[in-house]
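FAQ

Q: What does a record look like?
A: Structure on top, sequence underneath. For example:
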């Protein structure tokens, strides 16, 4: 196979021809990568006054081929000239120079990029995804569910018995993949407990450019008129987790994707489930009740309706990496109202809530796929210097 490709879409009229050429471009990228070099993509846009030619390097393009096909097709349909050539020799994962090209602070806002991540960053993240989840990056689907309960995994596997499972036991964040054509299935990842885990997994999942991420966990209810088993949809987050404070200032507002919340609420209404919408207080302190006065003061000021340990972290990284996200939690305890999470009561609650929780989340994601098959609009989390291959709102 030739390891160079040029495609002038202005000379091609049919959609089928465009699809064939974009497929060929991705084949060439994969061949270049397998032969030990990073593929370099050059896109020439005659309609752009300030950035007519944009270039970028890729790594392991097979892992997110569906995304490359979608983004390159959009550019081709607008008349862009697309070239693919070998760039430079791939760095080994144990090469000391690898980390020199992964610094996310190295971002020139005057220069438009092709892709959000450098090839070295992609290499590291995909390797760590395999390590943490026990599954191959190519198995990940466009729609991601995060949980921290084995019981949700059991429900997911009952619903999708053919899902791809971890290849080995004892992985830190096992993943399960209900695979569909064009990667339009659902991946469930048991991320464990705490904001550090939430940051770690979303740092790496982001490289695969999922269309949506949804946190389906449990929370402590904070209001008088909440009951055990009620649901909570986040409309905002009180970031008391601390793990991203040095990377993204606390004064930047973080909100979930509006359409994801619409679909989640439709499903909650369909199943007649009591729920509230409001701010989620995310803490890194599992025993926050032991500093009750201080924490309750923050809860009061933030008007929070529930407390958990992961939601704000997932949402903040969703904002950073331009991934539509939402949070649907189920109230498992009410620590401020004499209803702490005690073993026997908790087990009964889990048994009664686990099935419907996953069912509703998957149903909401299916609504996303039906209404926005090429990805949810993400204008609210796009930047002025957004990468050229940046999702549904590329212009």
């Amino acid at each position: 196979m030739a390891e160079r490709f040029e495609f002038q879409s202005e000379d091609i009229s049919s959609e089928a021809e465009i699809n064939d050429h974009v497929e060929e471009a991705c084949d060439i990228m994969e061949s270049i990568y397998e032969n030990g070099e990073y593929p370099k993509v050059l896109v020439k846009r005659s309609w752009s006054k300030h950035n007519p030619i944009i270039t970028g390097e890729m790594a392991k393009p097979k892992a997110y081929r569906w995304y490359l096909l979608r983004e390159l097709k959009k550019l081709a349909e607008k008349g862009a000239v697309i070239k693919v050539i070998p760039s430079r020799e791939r760095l080994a994962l144990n090469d000391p120079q690898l980390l020199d090209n992964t610094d996310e602070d190295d971002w020139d806002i005057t220069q438009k990029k092709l892709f959000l991540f450098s090839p070295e960053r992609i290499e590291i993240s995909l390797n760590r995804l395999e390590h943490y989840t026990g599954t191959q990056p190519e198995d990940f689907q466009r729609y991601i569910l995060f949980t921290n309960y084995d019981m949700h995994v059991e429900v997911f596997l009952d619903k999708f018995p053919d899902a791809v499972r971890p290849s080995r036991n004892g992985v830190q964040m096992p993943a399960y993949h209900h695979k569909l054509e064009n990667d339009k299935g659902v991946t469930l990842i048991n991320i464990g407990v705490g904001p550090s885990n939430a940051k770690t997994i979303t740092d790496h999942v982001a490289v695969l450019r999922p269309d949506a991420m949804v946190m389906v966990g449990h929370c402590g209810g904070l209001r008088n008129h909440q009951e055990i088993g009620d649901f909570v949809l986040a409309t905002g987050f009180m970031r008391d987790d601390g793990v991203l404070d040095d990377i993204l200032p606390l004064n930047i507002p973080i909100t979930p994707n509006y359409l994801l919340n619409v679909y989640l609420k439709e499903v909650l209404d369909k199943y007649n489930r009591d729920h509230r919408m409001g701010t989620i207080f995310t803490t890194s302190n599992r025993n926050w009740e032991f500093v009750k006065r201080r924490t309750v003061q923050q809860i009061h000021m933030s008007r929070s309706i529930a407390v958990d340990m992961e939601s704000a972290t997932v949402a903040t990284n969703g904002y950073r990496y331009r991934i539509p996200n939402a949070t649907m939690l189920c109230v498992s305890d009410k620590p401020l109202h004499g209803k702490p999470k005690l073993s026997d009561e908790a087990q009964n609650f889990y048994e009664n809530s686990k099935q419907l929780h996953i069912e509703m989340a998957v149903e909401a994601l299916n609504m996303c796929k039906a209404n926005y098959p090429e990805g949810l609009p993400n204008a609210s989390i796009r930047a002025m210097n957004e990468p050229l291959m940046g999702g549904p709102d590329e212009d």
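Q: Is there anything notable about this one?
A: The mean pLDDT is 88.
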